[in-house]
Amino acid sequence: MNSPHHPDALDLRLLANFIHQVVNPLNGVIGTVDNLLDGTVALDKRHQRLAAIRAQLEWSVMLVRNLAYFTESSLGVESRKQSPAAKICVIPQLVIEAALFFQESGLSEGINIHLEDRETQYAVRGSPDLLRQVFMNLLDNAVKYSDADSTVTIRPWIQKSTNHFILEVRNYGPGFRFDEAELLFKVGYRSEQAIKRVASGTGLGLFICRRILMEIDASIEAEYSRQNREVIMRLRFPNWEVM
């Protein structure tokens, strides 16, 4: 029998968590569709319910993409590193598209998502779909683990000493221990505080963020200040341009 630390046991735990995460929103979709079909939902509420269905389906698709990416990486599928075919990825556009997935769930908890600079069109080369997935994973965590009635801030800036483009996702919440900062990017790892806040989770999101960013020679690190309860996910892009 596999021990709890055996790779196969880890894979089974990830699969069980993944199934749980996908089944919940799909069950929500079924329930909402039933209410629409039987007339339980008033006419003036139908648009709102349809928007909720769309958000739940998009969330399920994102989870499936996470699993697909993880599976490809585990099987050694050829890397999609930056190449002449890589597309221009306009960062503010991708961040805004990702944020739209979480506006409704955030507002229900009084959590606002704010992009500090929408005007400067910072851009990098890579896969728009994969980078959007990175921002969705980060914003999902930020909204899920933020204190109620707080703001998730996305801050783009240029570090003068290195001329790197930096993008920070900042939120206020329980955070993590100092010694967990690197562990957060390991497959299946969830911080103690994250588990206390939300019992289930795939433990794949941040691992996948780092893998995707590595493919375009970018990086990500985590920081937490116990003094003001601020969590910072800092993305670093050495190669960038302004459109």
CATH superfamily of the largest domain: Histidine kinase-like ATPase, C-terminal domain
Any idea how many domains?
2
What is the percent of helical residues?
40-55%
The tally of strands reads 8
The number of helical runs is: 7
Provide the CATH top-level class of the largest domain: Alpha Beta
Distance between the termini: 56 Å
Strand order of the largest sheet: 2-4-5-7-6
Radius of gyration over all CA atoms, rounded: 19 Å
SSE string = HHEHHEEHEEHHEEE
What oligomeric state do the depicted chains represent?
single chain
Strand portion: 15-25%
Major pleated sheet = 5 strands, mixed
- Could you tell me the CATH topology label of the largest domain: Heat Shock Protein 90
Chain-averaged pLDDT = 81
What would the keywords be for this entry?
7 helices; 3-stranded antiparallel beta sheet; alpha+beta; disordered N terminus; Heat Shock Protein 90; globular; 243 residues; 5-stranded mixed beta sheet
Question: Can you tell me about this structure?
Answer:
The strands form two sheets. This protein has a five-stranded mixed β-sheet with strand order 2-4-5-7-6. Strands 1-3-8 form a three-stranded antiparallel β-sheet. It is globular. It has seven helices and eight strands, in the order H-H-E-H-H-E-E-H-E-E-H-H-E-E-E. The termini are far apart. The protein has 243 residues and is α+β, with helices and mostly antiparallel strands. Residues 1-7 and 79-84 have low confidence and may be disordered. It folds into two domains: 7-74; 87-242, Histidine kinase-like ATPase, C-terminal domain (Heat Shock Protein 90), CATH 3.30.565.10.
